[in-house]
Each structure stands twice: as C-alpha cells, then as structure tokens.
Amino acid sequence: MVLMRMMVLVVLILAVAGRAEVKYHPLTGRPMMLTVEGVSREHGKPMISAKRAEQIAREFLEVNGSVFGVKDIASELVMVPVEQDRYGFSHVNFFQVNEGVEVIGGALYVHLNRKGQVYAVNGKFAPDLMLSTTPAIEKEHAVKLAIAQAQVDMQTTDSPIAGEPRLVLLPLGFIHNEEDDDVHLAWQVQTDEDVSSQSMTYYIDALTGATLIGLDNVREINRRVRDYSSGNSQMDIYDAGYNYTFGRSEGQPVRGPNPRPGVTFGSNDVDSAYSQVGGAHDYYFSTFGINGANNLGGTGVPPFSNRTYVNVLIDPWIPNTAWPQDYCPNANYQSGVGWMYYCTGTVVADIVGHEYTHAVHYYAVRDANNNPIGVPYSGESGALDESGADISGDAIELWHTGIHDWQNGTNSIHGVTRNYADPPALAWGTWGRRPDRKYSEYYCCTGYDNGGVHENSTIVSKGCYLMAVGGEFNGCEFDSIGFEAVQQILYRAWAEYFTYTVTFADAVAAFQQSCIDLYDATHPEYLATVTAALQAVEMDQPGLCSGIAEVAPACAVHGAGVVSHDTTVYLGQNVIVNGTGGIAEREVTFYLSTHPAVDTIWAPINIYREVMNRDTVEPDGSLSANAWLADTLGVFDIIVDENSDGFYQPWADTILTVHVLDCAVSELTAYYVDPARIELRWLGCPGVSEYIVETDVTPEFANADTLAVVADTMYVDSVSVPAAELLLYRVRAVR
Fold it and tell me: Between residues 305 and 638, which one has the greater pLDDT?
C-alpha cells in the first residue's frame, strides 16, 4: 500500500453532489474526512425526517464509500438511530461489521444539513477483511486470561470482577495510530477490581489467547456524595457521637465541616463536591442543552441513569512522591455506574468540572450497539480526552466562580498541574514540563502515562487557548474567537465527529467542521483562526515520535516580510535592516549572534550580545530598523526574530550575515578612458581582496545598482554618452 506522509487534498467529482475534498491522515495515510464544497450550514428546524436522512446517507455512501474502502454497505455497515441536533442537522452513524462481528474503531459518520444535503463524512474503515469470525478460544477461557492479566496489571491477589465478554474484530493499527491495520479476532473483556479503584478492558486474541492490548477505563471523574473519612462508605448516615450526618444525597441539607479528627477534620469537601457537581450539571444543561453527562440526568446507565456518584476520600494528595491509594481525583465507569473520586483538598471547581467532563466524553462516543464507550484512554485519543476535560473544567470553573485562569488544579492541595497558555513553563513533580506542539522536546513518545494522555494533552489545550485569545505562535498569527466559541466547537466535535479511535489529525478536521457548522453564517472568519491555531501546535503533522521531519506550519509567515541589509559595514556604522510585505504592528526582535548562527529548528537563539533592538512593522508592512551599531571587527549574524519568541524557526525568522571591516576605500577617482568608457581607481584596504562597485543617481545610494565585484583597485565601465542623468559611483570593501 502506498501511504501519504502529509495531509493531502484530493479533488473528486461526486455523482450526488458537487466537488469534495478528502483529508488523509498525515501518518497513516488513511482517509479521515470527506467534505462537500458549498453546502449551507444554515440553522433551523430540520426539513427532512430521520428516515429520509438515513436514505440519503446510504445513497451517498453507495456512490462515495469506496473512498474509505467500503464495497458493500448492506454487509459491511450497520446503523444506529439517526440523531437530529438542535441546529437542524442530521447525523447518520454507521459502524463496520464483518460477518456480523463489530470492527472496533471502524465507523463512518455521515452529516447532513437541515435540507438533507450531505456536507461531510468522517471516520475509519478497515477494507478487505478476510478473517474468520469463529473463535478457537472459548469465552470462559478468555475471561480467565483477562482476570489473570488484570491481577498482574492491578497488582492485586484478589480476583477482579469480569463483565460479559464480547467477540469483536480489533484493528491494532486503529488503536496505535499505525499504518498496518493488523486486524485480530478478539474477546473484549472488562475487568473491575472493586468500586473504588481500577478498571481495565482487555482484548484477548480469540485464536491464540494472547493479550493484544489492555485499555484503562479510569479517568482522572444524582449527586450521591459518599463520605469515606471513617474508611468506610457513608451517605446520609447520622452519627450521634459526633452529632453529624456523614455524606449527602440529592435534596439533603448542607452538612457543614467534618467533625471527625484526622486529615478530614473541618473539611467541607462533601458539601463542596455536592455543589460543584451540581454546577457542572447546570453548565452542560445551560450551555449545550444536555441533561447530565448521559442526557438522562446523571452519569450512569439504566437503572442508575439519574445518579451521579461521588466519593470523598480520606487520602490526602501526596505531591511529587506517589499516587494515593485510590488514585484520586479520577473518574471510572465500572459497571456503567459512573463514579468520581476526590481526595481531601482536591474538590475544587476546575478539577470537579474536569472529572465530570470525562463522563460527557464517555457518553458522546458509542459503539455499533449504540452503547457508550468513550475513547481509548491511551495515546492521542486519551490526550484528547484529558485536554477536553481540562478546557471544559476551566469553563466550569468560570461558570461556577466567575473567573478562570487557563490552568488545572487552581486552589487544590496539589497546586497547578497544567498550564494551557504556556505548557512548558510549568514543571510539576515527576511529570516534568509539558509540550505545546507535536514536535516539542517534551512530547511523550513512551508508554508512560498511558502513552502521554496527560503529558501530551497540553498540545490540544494550547491550541484551544490560542483560538480563544488570539496572538502569535510558531510563526502563525490569529485573531481571537473567544472562550465561548471554543467551548461550543469543542463540545460539538466530541458530540458529532469524534470516533472511537480519534487522533490529533482527526480532531483537526472535526474542529474545523464543528466551527463551520456553528459559525459559518455569523462568523465565517472563525474558521481561519481555528485552522491556524491547530496548525501552529502541529496537530496536523506526524509529530516527534514518527521520525518524520518537522515542516513549517501551513499558517506560518515571516512577520517582517522580506528583509535585507548591507552585508558589509565599517566600525561605528549602523546595521540597518529593511523589510517589505510584513504583518502590520508585528513586533520584531534583533539578536546579534556569532557566525554561523545556530539554525536548528526551535533551538534557543544563540545570543552573542544581549537584545540589540526591537522594532514594530509599520501599518503598510514596511520595516526600517537600526539592528546594531557595529563596534567589533569580524563576521556576525543578525537574527531577525520575527515572532519575538526567542527560538529559531526558519519559517518565522531570518538570519542575515554581516562583515564588519576596519576601513573604507579612499582616493576614489574617475575619468573617461574614451567617450564611451569610464575608469575608476581607488586606494584599497590592507588585507581586503574583494570590492563592490555600485552606482546610483542619489548621494544616499538608496537604490544602488551593483556594477561588479572586483579583486583589484581598478574598474573600467562602459557608459552611455551623453548620460540622461548624472551617475554617482561608490566602491565598498567586502573582504
């Protein structure tokens, strides 16, 4: 198979619509999204029925499904009920099957506007499956193998609880974001240690019994707040000895400070959890119109649909050393109940909002049976889960307190753990600094942290920050679309476009489509900001772990435009840098570096002297800046840092070499050799063997023309006589 290593746009002619573009994954080469040009995203009531939307979607895939590898819709795809959203759009979600067995991660989502026109299809499909769907390993044996693996992974001698196994086809390439589909027949088994801690989903090879992969179900998420300050679960339990009721269920009064001696003495965590989980619920209802994470009133599945279980634990957070016993704060979906856990000192608005949002994500992504599954809590999909929870947690903090700060963990006992505005600025405990782009030296390429779910999440968070506030980054410049628009786009991407094995590149296309859906009619300019922000953090590039070289973001520009300077100056002269075609009002910084300057991408600029000067591009895009007063002999580089970030990027910065000499030519004379020729002679500089001869019509030599570069101290030129204008001549020593 020939794979494309960069984002490629292929133009197709569709039989049922106009032209379309297909976006391919930059690493795997798989098609990610097909979009149809010129389809309206006007909001309003749907003008077609759900049944008609299904019919149109099927007809569209019959013509265009081959783009993704579909050959026979009837045998390769099953559909879940059509969703018609509050903007009037219809979403018809198909899931891949082979001989009736679900292909994990295989899904195609067809999106129609309110008039019934298809505007996009996104997802993944594993073509040409030729696998047997008859297992050699019985499901009872697969359960035993999963439990044994869980005991090793959970480091427990207890026998975890296992759910009913399910036979599936697992393309490991979908899970690992790799080229090879590597499809296996597998038993899917969920194992839970107990109600307060660990949960894993294992895929056991149904032919060999090998463990193909284990995925963590625990996310770091009707109010039933259980108090564990005694070491046991207590909810609405009155203790006469303390004259206090421990725990608080829906509708119960405020409990007040915990009277039990020890870590939790005087804690208001139970009441805080009750209030803040309610705030998260209200935020999602008011902002997106959903009734709880599951849109049924809570975080659980029937019969627990209207409940949200919260456990406030005795364990204190132990920063920079080890995780507490219960790994809190976290979120878990064991047995479909949906639990959240908070240790003492972690019940704060952004953390509570973060954990609650994991439940929202879990219910947003579904399988072929329309059951909620979320996304794999590993690699890029897990990082998207964490980032979405971070940004939504910040939004819920704003909703609950009236302020937010683009950080995670504000006011908690463990302090701020992630900074979305400037991820590398914060080094927290053993986690270290966080990346702000996909080629950052801080990007996690190992299995640590479930493949960097927290570590790499800040790339997406930085992109959201840039969308919201605007600014400059990685050679790109963007306007602000505001935090509210970012929240809407983020939620819609999860609700309508994210599939089970979503990657960063998939998310770029999903964010773009969500932006068009929401704002094409009112703010079409928002799309440029969303696109540039995601390109700036390199979500559309293969990334550090791929081994493929970083390239310029598509949005990157030279802020100062095309810059030029005098390559030779003399002691005491100014080095003037001129620019044309720059970005108005862009601040430019000039550094003096030894020659040759370090030109490694994203290396800190090698400064020979402190910052020499700063200047701002004029409204007309021009620049004329005094970069340096040449006070030292030699060869130097002037680095024009055109986004003033202190790091070198060839797509945003320019290196200008300048020679500083200690003399100028003298005794320059000119006379006619004959009417058509002129001869120049001068006294040269010691040790200089190269001179530039220039001419102009003004003494400033503002538009000098180079006549020649010569090695001696004489030059003969042919001239036009009589001259239309008086020509002036200049000779400069070069080296």
Answer: 638
